[in-house]
Write a structure and sequence with these properties.
The protein has 394 residues and is of the alpha+beta class. Helix content is 28%, strand content 26%. A hairpin with a 5-residue loop joins strand 9 and strand 10.
Length: 394
């Protein structure tokens, strides 16, 4: 009977489905236990549909926000159909629950709302995944992209096996990338999160202004699509004076072998000290590591020295050649944007060689707009070089 119910739900559009017997809900908070809604409940059937992965690749404000909300009625329709079919085939009662709203609980001071039951905790108990440090459900196949639905029933069904966590131990990318610093690895502070996330545009449409905790997660697409760095998460360490020599060595490699930088000759340690800031209150330089191996370095520096530019920073990053093209640039830029916000910058500039096509693609993907194109402004290796500037308001 349980397998037939799951097959039906999967057959009408769900991507995953699991079952938790009511005995697994012993720790549910008072007022949010399935029996508080349906006293005869013996089993909780949880299912989900996955958002398209492409929604994590665009600005969240309109497109992501629209379809994230639009998925909820789709889930509600599956719950309604499933409840009717369960009652038709097996008798008893089945209660579909709304995927999102309506619900009653609202703490105006904390800006905290709670659904009739916690869908994500029910999904964990039904074996569909575990919670990540961003408090989103992580499913092995669909990552954190599932929109969840629930059907309560008085049928006594056997629980499915609990899932193993795919959240990377030691990874804190979602926490570090949160612009409002709302995450601590266990909870999301809605007082900080909601004002930064939800809004309304001039036309009156609801907007979702931030989904970074979902979009930057290395497991956002599930375990099967992990990158070579996912088992050993990227760590950022603020650079010290003794690190200057190592960074200069990498920078000099790019001088002598590439057109990424327009320097023509290797620079001295003293010259490099004037390129990056160490122990500065606002302008920061970081070493980038994975599994204790140095990947490269990144920094925020002065765009121009005049005080009028104090709200603008220039971003630079240099990776060892073997680590370029591996998809980690997004994580690095996201991290540095967060550092820039913390230090009260409002604009970031990236100046890129016209031959550095991968970097231009990276910054365009992350919402940077081309603001200048200087043609033939430099000569290196006997070739005339363009310089292209990108900017982003943060």
């Amino acid at each position: 009977m349980k397998e037939q119910i799951k097959e039906f739900i999967l057959g009408i559009g769900a991507d995953v489905c699991g079952v938790a017997n009511i005995d697994r809900f012993s720790n549910a908070p008072e007022g949010f236990h399935p029996k508080d809604i349906f006293p005869d409940c013996k089993s909780v059937i949880v299912f989900g549909i996955s958002l398209p992965k492409g929604l994590t690749k665009v600005e969240p404000r309109l497109i992501y926000g629209h379809f994230n909300y639009a998925a909820c009625p789709e889930v509600d329709w599956i719950a309604f159909r499933a409840a009717r079919e369960i009652e038709r085939l097996y008798g008893g009662y089945a209660v579909p629950l709304p995927s999102d709203g309506p619900y009653e609980y609202w703490d105006a001071e904390k800006l905290e709302g709670r659904g009739l039951i916690s869908m994500k905790h029910a999904a964990v108990l039904a074996g569909l995944g575990t919670l990540g440090k961003n408090t989103l459900l992580l499913n092995e196949k669909y990552g954190n992209l599932l929109v969840l639905g629930v059907v309560l029933t008085d049928l006594d069904l056997v629980s499915d096996q609990l899932a193993e966590s795919i959240c990377i131990e030691g990874c804190s990318l979602c926490i570090r990338s949160c612009p409002s610093q709302a995450l601590d690895g266990q909870r999301a502070n809605q007082t900080k999160c909601r004002p930064n996330t939800y809004g309304t545009n001039a036309r009156g449409y609801g907007t979702v202004n931030c989904n970074k905790c979902r979009a930057v997660c290395p497991m956002r697409f599930g375990k099967k699509e992990k990158s070579i760095f996912m088992d050993n998460s990227i760590e950022f360490t603020e650079a010290k004076t003794e690190d200057l020599s190592t960074m200069r060595e990498l920078y000099n490699y790019y001088i002598m072998n590439t057109t990424v930088t327009f320097d023509l000759d290797k620079i001295t340690l003293e010259e490099f000290k004037n390129r990056v800031f160490i122990n500065h209150d606002k302008y920061k330089t970081f070493l980038i590591h994975a599994n204790k191996e140095l990947l490269g370095f990144c920094f925020l520096t002065q765009f121009k020295k005049k005080p009028a530019y104090d709200k603008t920073a220039e971003l630079g990053l240099y990776l060892k050649p073997q680590f370029t093209g591996k998809g980690i640039g997004i994580e690095i830029v996201n991290y540095m944007e967060n550092i820039a916000k913390i230090n009260h910058f409002e604009m970031i500039i990236a100046s890129i060689s016209g031959e550095n096509v991968p970097s231009m693609k990276l910054f365009r993907k992350l919402g940077y707009e081309q603001c200048a194109h200087y043609k033939g402004i430099a000569v290196k290796f006997g070739r005339k070089m363009d310089l292209v500037d990108f900017q982003k308001a943060i």
